[in-house]
Fold this sequence. Notes:
Elements: H1 4-14, H2 32-52, H3 59-81, H4 89-105, E1 113-117, E2 124-126, E3 131-135, H5 145-160, H6 163-175, H7 178-189, H8 194-229, H9 237-246, H10 257-264, H11 284-287, H12 303-314, H13 326-345, H14 349-360, H15 367-385, H16 403-414, H17 417-427
Parallel strand pairs: 1-3
Antiparallel strand pairs: 2-3
GO molecular function, one term: metal ion binding
GO cellular component, one term: membrane
Cofactor: Zn(2+)
Amino acid sequence: MKNRFLFTVIFFVSVFFANAQSEFKPIDTSSSALCRVNLAEEYKGKFTLINKNIVSSTSAQKSIIKGIYNEIQESFFDKINQNNFICEDNLYTYLNGLLQEVLVKNSIKENYRILLSKDGDANAYNTGDGTVVIHYGLFLTLENEDELVFVIAHEIGHQFLNHVKSEIESFAKLSTSEQVINKTKEIRSKKYGKATMAGDFLKNIQYQNYAKRRKKEFAADSIAVAFYRKTLRNPKAGVTILEKLDSSDSEKDSLTFDDYKLILNKNDFKVRKSWFEVEESLFKKYDNEKRIIVDSLKTHPDCISRINMIRKYAGSNFTEKTTISKDFLSIKQASTYQNLINLYDQEFYGISFYEALKLYKKDAENVVLKNIIYVNLSKILEAKTAYIINRYVPKVDNKKNSESLNRFITFINNLKTSDLQLIINNFKS
C-alpha cells in the first residue's frame, strides 16, 4: 500500500490524454488527504452529539441502540479512512446547490450534508444524521438533473421522517420484547432442530421488517413528491428514475466466450474453452432461492406500486422538458470512465476489468479503456502471484451474479500467472 498513491497518480496521468472518441479527465483527488482529515473531524463531533442524546425506556434497549450506532459510525469512519468519498470542490458545490434547492424551497431549517461516494452501483442513502450520500454509479443511470433532485428529495424525506432513528429504536424494542425472549428460551430448550427453528423465526422477523420498510419507502416517496413539487421541476422525474432503478440490477450487457476470443486472442495468447468451465456447486439446488430483500435505493420494495403512487400524487401533467445543466452533463459524460477508475481506486480490480472489457469489445481503439484494462490486469497479476486474488475479484455466486459475471470470475480464477502476463503484454501501451 506504500506506493499506492504514487501508482494512482501515474495511472491518472496515463489516462489524461484524449483519444479520438472523447476528451476525458479523471476527477482531481489531490486534496483527498486533507478532505479525509476534515470529514473525520466533522463527523466525530456530529456522532458525539448523537451518542450523548440517546434516550430509551430501558437500559437494555439503550445498550442495543448504542451498539447499533457504534457499528454505523465505525463503518462510516472506515469509508472516510478508505477515501470512499470524492472530495472535489466543483462537484460538492454543484451537489450542495441541488440539496439547498430542495431545503430552501421547502423552508427546511435543519442542517443537512451531501456527500458523493465512489461506489459504483445505482444507489443513494440517508445516514440518519442529516447526511445524504449519492453513489457515483447513480450517474450511469440518471438521464437528467431532475431525476437527481428527486433522489435527493427522497433521501431528505427519510431524514425528515426520522426513519433511521425509528428503525433502530424499533429493533431495540423488538430485541428486548417478551416475544423474542420467550422464543429464544423455547429454541434453546429443544434437543433437535434448533438451527431450523432459529432460522425460521429470524426469517419471519426479517419479512415483518421488510413490510415496515415498504411503508417507510412509500412515506418517503410521498413527502419527496411534496418537496420536489416546490422546486417546479418536471414532475415526471420521480417516475422515470424509479423505472430505471427497478431494472438496475439487470445486467445490460454481457461477455460470451466468443467475445473473449475477439478481445484477447492476440500474438502468443489464445483463449481456451476449459478456462470458462464452472464447477457445479454441491448446493446448486439452493443457489437460486430468492434472497430476503435488503433496503437500498435501487432495491426499494415494489417499484411499480410506488411509481403508480407518484403518478397519482404528482398529477398527470407531465412534460417532456427536463433539466440537463452544464454541470450535470459534465458528470454524466465522464461517468462511464470515472466509474471504472473509482472501482480501481477501491481495489475492485476484477469488476473494473470486467466492466471495461464490456465497453472495449465495442471500441477496441479506445486508449482510455486500454489503459484501464492494463492497470487492473497488473493488479490482478500481483494478487495472483501473492495468492490473494479473492480480495480483489468476487466469488462465483449463482444468486447474486449474472451468468456472464460468473463466467468472467471462473476465467480469472483458471488463468495462470503466465497467461495473465501474456494478456498484459498485449494491452501495454
